[in-house]
Design brief:
By secondary structure, this protein is mainly alpha-helical. It has two domains: about 220 residues, HUPs (Rossmann fold, 3-Layer(aba) Sandwich), CATH 3.40.50.620; about 90 residues, Tyrosyl-Transfer RNA Synthetase. The chain is built from 15 helices and three strands. It has a three-stranded parallel beta sheet.
């Protein structure tokens, strides 16, 4: 694969959990390093999306920290890798408005996330939640992104982006490159996660207190999630209190033993060991406490090393990366926006 644009972004409305990091940021870092030689990699900070649900004084602090996380995770910066803030590229907002005039109320109101977050049309829901997919479409179409690595809950938004772009192209002439169809997006992510260790990074880490759910930064119970800033003693306390079961055997079974299976997955991810090898190591063992101690030690060591790397990256280095990325993004986005403006006779 050559000459494609790959785009991704992770919201920065609060501290990142271990699940966010291992399931999203680390895989994107590896994907970027794998494809950046011959393709364009856009990593944008979706701060406009963030304020839809969280306007507070921590936004700037969190976005700087997130970029440090990318760098500490091993992101290789070169001429094809750019990091930029969405709000520092005004074309995102203007294209969003133009696309609003092409999208329909019907297709936007059918978005599953809107239905969930608006509680089926609650009148007090802010308009940003409804318009979120249109801004996402602008994020993608401004740069002609072919691949947009996202979670399954975002696939519907990718299809909406394709529909809007097709409608625009039909009415105003060929203007937008369409992102790949969902099936192609899935195939790309599967191929990208080629090795066993890379595939492990796609595993969804579960809530420590309720392993039926994914680990979430918004969970109220502090012991349910491991934060990337947690100290070793805190990590140990959380893992040792993780919910398991009463079966008395260590086995990988997400249906009957989701808690134990979650711990085995975490151990595989933080040690870089194929999951099957970890499962084999613990096969036949019965002492859950021993597994928890091993996982706690592995996670604590992993986070200590990671936090040290983060502390060695200065804010000045981050802002220089953003300055360079936003210069690139504005050049590309302004060019595409002008093309769109001409198509709809605004220019």
């Amino acid at each position: 694969m050559e000459g494609k644009t790959i785009l991704t972004g992770i919201r920065v409305n609060s501290e990142m959990t271990l699940g966010n990091f291992l399931g999203a940021l680390l895989p994107m870092t590896r994907l970027s390093n794998k494809y950046s030689k011959n393709n364009q990699i856009n990593i944008f900070i979706p701060d406009l999306h963030t304020i839809i649900s969280d306007i507070d004084g921590e936004l700037q602090k969190n976005l700087v920290k997130e970029i440090k996380y990318y760098l500490a995770a091993g992101l290789e910066l070169n001429k094809n890798v750019h990091i930029y803030r969405q709000s520092y590229v005004p074309a995102h907002s203007e294209l969003c408005w133009i696309l609003n005039c092409v999208a329909t109320m019907g297709e936007t109101s059918r978005m599953i996330q809107y239905k969930e977050k608006s509680h089926n049309g609650d009148a007090s829901t802010n308009v940003g939640i409804f318009d979120y997919p249109i801004l996402m479409a602008a994020d993608i179409l401004l740069y002609g992104a072919t691949y947009v690595p996202v979670g399954e809950d975002q696939f519907q938004h990718i299809e909406l982006t394709r529909n809007i772009a097709e409608r625009f192209n039909h009415k105003f002439g060929e203007t937008f490159i369409l992102p790949a169809k969902t099936v192609e997006q899935v195939k790309f992510m599967e191929v990208s996660n080629g090795s066993e260790s890379e595939k492990a990074a796609g595993i969804r880490i579960r809530d420590l207190q309720n392993p039926e759910k994914k680990m979430s930064k918004s969970a109220e119970a502090e012991n349910s999630k491991i934060m990337m800033s947690d100290e070793p003693a805190r990590v140990t306390k959380k893992i040792m209190s993780a919910q398991t079961d009463s079966l008395g055997k260590i086995a990988f079974d997400m249906i009957n033993q989701p808690g134990i299976s979650n711990l085995l997955q975490i151990e595989a991810l933080v040690t870089g060991t194929p999951l099957q090898d970890v499962i084999s190591t613990w096969a036949g063992e019965t002492h859950y406490g021993d597994l928890k101690k091993k996982v706690a030690a592995s996670v604590s060591g992993y986070l200590e090393d990671f936090q040290k790397r983060v502390s060695e990256i200065s804010d000045e280095e981050v802002y220089k990366i953003l300055e360079d990325g936003e210069k690139y993004a504005n050049e590309v986005a302004k060019k595409k926006l002008l093309e769109v403006q001409k198509a709809v006779k605004l220019r």
